[in-house]
Amino acid sequence: MREPFLTVVLPCRDQEDHIGAVLRGYAGPLEATGLSFELVVVPNACRDRTADIVKALAASDARIRVAENPAGGWGLSVLTGLAASRGSVLCYANSARTEPPQVSELLARYLENAPCLAKVRREHRSAPLRELGSWLFNMEGRLLFGTAVADVNGTPKIFPRLTYERLGLFSAGDLLDLELVVKVRRLGMPIVELPVRGFSRHGGRSSTNLRSAWRMYTGALRLKKGLSGFPEHGMRVIA
Predict the structure, then answer these.
(1) Rounded to the nearest 5 degrees, what angle is found at the Cα of 42, between the Cα atoms of 33 and 45?
(2) What is the tens place of the pLDDT at every residue in 143-183?
(3) DSSP assignments along 24-75, one per residue
(4) Number of domains in the chain
(5) Per-residue pLDDT tens over the stretch 64-92
(6) DSSP H helical segments within the chain, as ranges?
(7) Structural domain for 119, as ranges
C-alpha cells in the first residue's frame, strides 16, 4: 500500500463491545473525501479482547494498522500511533467518543486553512463537574502559556506531518494535548476550531476522575518548566 494522505491515530482501551463498529464506521466518511487514508489503532494496555478484535480487522483491511502500547497512557498511545504513521497529514482522536463524520468535517476545515492545527471545540460537557474541571484546566492553560483556545483537550486534532516532526512531543500522560497546543502556538501556526455540541461515549467508562484531574493541573506547572526552551512566535485562533 502506498503512503496515504491522512493517518488517523485511534487509541483504544477496553472497548471490545464496540471497537469493531467504531472502526468500520470510519470507512464511509473518509472514503467520501476522495483522499487516501489509514487508521493506526493503538490498543492501550487493554485487559479485554480489544486488541484481538482490532488485529482481526487489520488482517482483512490494509487501511487498518495496529501499534500496541502495553505500558498505557493517553499521551504515549497517541505518540505510539504517530510514530507508526505514514500520512502527510496526521490526526488523532478519542476512539470512545469521536463520531467518524467529525474527522472528515474537520479535515475539510484543515484543508481550507492549511498549514494549521485543526481541532474540535466542545461547547458542552456531559456533566456539570466535568464542565467545571475543563474550564479550570483551560483557564490554567491561558494563565501559564497564553493559550487562547477554549477546549485544549478537544479531539480530533489534525496537523501536518512536517509540523509534527518539528514539535518533539514527549508528554506520555494526559498533558499531550496541552503540549501540542502550546508548541503550535509558539511556532506561530494558526489554530482552527470546529465547534461541536459535545460527545457521548460509544461504550465503556471514562477514566477521568478527581485524581487524574489533579494530576493534569499540577502537571501543567511542570510542563511550563519543560517547555521553557521552546521558541515563541505568537498564535492565531480561527473560530
Answers:
(1) 155
(2) 999 998 989 999 999 999 999 999 999 999 999 999 999 99
(3) HTTHHHHHTTTS-EEEEEEEBS-SSSHHHHHHHHHHH-TTEEE--BTT--HH
(4) 1
(5) 999 999 999 999 999 999 999 999 999 99
(6) 19-24, 27-31, 50-60, 74-84, 100-113, 128-145, 161-167, 176-186, 210-226
(7) 6-238
